[in-house]
Specification:
This protein is 7% helix and 56% strand. A hairpin with a 2-residue loop joins strand 1 and strand 2. It has one domain: Beta Barrel (OB fold (Dihydrolipoamide Acetyltransferase, E2P)). With 72 residues, the protein is mainly β. The protein has a five-stranded mixed β-barrel with strand order 1-2-3-5-4. The radius of gyration is 11 Å and the shape is globular.
Length: 72
């Protein structure tokens, strides 16, 4: 799937259990997220309450890849 087909949406991390991260999106839905490769390589830590940007496939709207964490 080409990169342009993905949906990008913002949300807030609500729960972390091992590699599964629960994210509440700005539209109210709760999805399961995982870290993108660049965040894993650079050891970016995600904590509860962090604002994140999630990239989702239009075919499966229940999972997403965390591609950015806000600095605030």
């Amino acid at each position: 799937m080409p990169k342009g087909d993905c949906l990008e949406i913002e949300g807030v991390v609500t729960d972390i259990v091992k590699d599964d991260i629960k994210i509440k999106l700005i539209n109210g839905h709760v999805i399961t997220g995982y870290l993108a490769g660049k965040l894993r390589i650079n050891n970016i830590r995600i904590m509860v309450g962090d604002k994140v940007k999630v990239e989702m496939s239009p075919y499966d709207l229940t999972k997403g890849r965390i591609i950015w964490r806000d600095k605030n």
